[in-house]
Design goal:
Elements: E1 7-12, H1 18-29, H2 35-43, E2 51-57, E3 62-76, E4 79-91, H3 100-114, E5 119-122, H4 126-132, E6 138-150, H5 154-161, H6 165-185, E7 194-198, H7 208-214, E8 220-221, H8 225-233, H9 237-240, E9 243-250, E10 253-263, E11 268-276, H10 279-296, E12 301-306, H11 309-316, E13 321-332
Parallel strand pairs: 4-5, 11-12
Antiparallel strand pairs: 1-2, 2-3, 3-4, 3-8, 5-13, 6-12, 6-13, 7-9, 9-10, 10-11
Length: about 350
Amino acid sequence: MTKQINFECKMIDPCEYRKLLLDLFEEAFEEKMAVDQFIWKYENNPLGKMKVWSIWDKDTGVLAGTYGAFKRYFIHKGSIVTVYQRADSMVKPEYRRKGIFTQLLKEMNKFLSENGVLFNFGYSNDKSASGIRKFNNSRELYYSTVYVFVNGAENIVNSYLKIKGILSRILISVGTAIIRMYNMFCGYYKENDISLEPLKEFNDLPEKWSYEAAREHQFFPLRNKEFLQWKVIDVPKSFKKNLFAFWMIKKGKKIAYCVLYRDSTRNVLKLIDILCENIAQNMKDSISAVRYFAISNKYDAVTTNVASEIYSNAFETSGFIKNKAVRCTLLTLQPEFAIEHPSDKSFWLQLPIDRDNFDY
């Protein structure tokens, strides 16, 4: 007979429980998080520390599980609204299948709902998605799609075909040559009139760019300068070496910025954020500049994840191939709030946070 465990649920301050949370992370994900990475992610977010809900075994005092969420600002119908993005659902192995995940999510929903938050969302794996489906206020959105620009065959051969040895090297060499000849034929090797300038701070970011883009979408993430400075510039050293941030300059004027993450294990660039002035006029040129950067530096591919019709059209007409849909799980928290039909203008962009960088 399974012993009934006496649990206690409470919110905790990540600063006070840093050591316990780091230990739990290692147990839950079987990998370590560096202390500076934890401080950056949980404690130093300019929109506020990560909110963390925890469950404890009252009989033993053991921290059995936690679930975190951090604040995000979106633009909806011309106004800024507060939402929360879920992160790091962690349960100790010996406490799994005891309803801990469900209880943590209930507590999170209750607190956020009482504080007027419209919804919380996350990009869930199969395990957590099955638990979220139990909630009546949950929705699974597949608006997001991964797009890929292919410029080499190594990742295809190693990751998809899983061929090794001499045959692998031959296929990579021949396949890469064919792919790059095709890209050259399509004109992708031709440099456009946009130059890339290293972006070291976001103080010059026009907030109007977000509001212009929001007119084309049901929801749009506000590019808050402080948030982006934290997310892109003031990052742990382990991320900094793989992050590229650029202003895009056209005729001496800043028309866009982009953030790229280098997945060195696959020789792939991940476009994790891009925003431009006047999307209809500048988006395709901005994407072409990213593509040319990848080609010039001999990356095998560029991947990104978007769900905006206007963004998708720009990628599809710039040599990017539509790949797989990405599941976003959303929990609505206010009765008057509803996501409109997906045929209406919508936007979901996975702005990756640390370990998420490796997953798309």
